């Protein structure tokens, strides 16, 4: 990225200063997992920092972003991790997940990966702000996206920009006809998948998103205006496509991916705990009664209601509330107040520290 920036006329003078380069490379706030910050974006800020007094607003904003990022990680992401881990571990061990077990696992993982990585990005943005450095935002409510193209404008925004400018455009972009554009889209997303790890499952994840983007472009070009999907259906279809693509991304193996997909489409049947069917007998007409749903982790009757309540809360936050960058000071204060006690509990009493997911990639 540094060499590419140095080639552009606008950035040549900025990024060829060795001291600026060293400060940029060594700036700890973005070293591990992003946001992917271009040298020309922060070297001038680092150069101005000694001459610019740190503002109280920078300190307040930085600390707020750090605390909200910790809340996302410790209170939200780590709460959904057990639900996702149990389901995918069961699939990896050959268990035939039923419809509800599979959907609980994938819905939990989608929330886990979002709150985990966006929380990390908030912490990185906040740390930089403590030094008067402004990082670009990395998430913009991606699960509210109206299309796959819109999703990639909102999810890991700095990676999307990197893939566009350093892979898609050099490959030719859309300059050589539609067929070449679709090939470039697929190659870009396949390489984006390999960015996360040298495994077939990441290649499949990237390939699915490449296919989604191609279909999105064809639909936008060919579909008449009257056939365009209403907003709720477009958002729902986009989210469904993203959820199915998360399966190979998270599953430990291709066999586990197939097992999870079979459960998601109902090929392994629909089951509910016997105790719940006893409370609502009409449920027995559509679901078979089982003592427990083993992929939910234990034999308690309330495992399923608790999981559904937790997922409902998470998806309400994601789909109905403003994100951290959009939220007003009142919303941010309410979020900090609501999560403060739970953050303290997680910091001091959690049994196992959960690392950030993107540290693996």
TrEMBL record:
Pfam families named in the record: MBOAT
Bilayer-spanning residue ranges: 18-37, 95-115, 182-203, 233-251, 263-287, 307-325, 337-359
Pathway(s) served: Glycan biosynthesis; alginate biosynthesis
Membrane topology: Multi-pass membrane protein
GO cellular component, one term: plasma membrane
GO molecular function: acyltransferase activity
GO BP: any one term: alginic acid biosynthetic process
Keywords: Acyltransferase, Alginate biosynthesis, Cell membrane, Membrane, Transferase, Transmembrane, Transmembrane helix
Subcellular location field: Cell membrane
Domain of life per record: Bacteria
Chief site of localization: membrane
The keyword Cell membrane is annotated on this UniProt entry: yes
Assigned protein family: Belongs to the membrane-bound acyltransferase family.
This protein's name: Probable alginate O-acetylase AlgI
Taxonomic classification: Bacteria, Pseudomonadati, Pseudomonadota, Alphaproteobacteria, Acetobacterales
